[in-house]
Amino acid sequence: MKFLLDENVPISIKKVIQDNGFEAFTLHDFNMLGIQNGKVAELALNNNAIILTLDSDFLNLNRNLQTKSRIVYIKLHPRDPVKLRKIVNNFLKKNSFKLNNPFKVMITETDEDYELF
Question: For the segment 63-90, what is each residue's pLDDT rounded down to a tens digit?
Fold first, then answer.
């Protein structure tokens, strides 16, 4: 399983994902910083990757991209990197087996379970 980290996700999350046995890459790895969300979604689709983002706009992509994309949106304010690493680690340990089909999920720091929609 592969994850594409949106540019608003701290680079330290890449290691958390890799430590859980998955691949992770960033927009920086592709030299594509500053691209629009639709282009990020297309890049993820072309690389069979799940988008990991702190940007709620990814929950409102155009219908064509929404029906194909796999999106994990983390709602965290303030954006504490320590909390974010814990949230991502817990999510991967509990839900990685559910992440094969298109989905959208919103995670908050208080969630015990995460609903895919």
Answer: 889 889 999 999 998 888 999 999 999 9
Q: Which domain holds residue 101?
A: 2-108
Residue 115 in any domain: the answer is: no
Distance (Å) of CA 112 to CA 30, 45, 81, 86: 34, 28, 19, 12
- Best CA proximity match to 72, nearest among 87, 50, 90: 50
How far is the CA of 83 from the CAs of 30, 98, 101, in angstroms?
27, 23, 27
- Judge whether 116 lies within some domain: no
Query: 12: helix, coil or strand?
Result: helix
Q: How far apart are CA 30 and CA 25, in angstroms?
A: 8
Which whole number is the average pLDDT over 37-61? 94
Task: Find the CATH number of the domain harbouring 62.
Answer: 3.40.50.2300
22-35 tens-digit pLDDT: 999 999 998 888 89
Establish if 16 belongs to a structural domain: yes
Residue at 44 is within a domain: yes
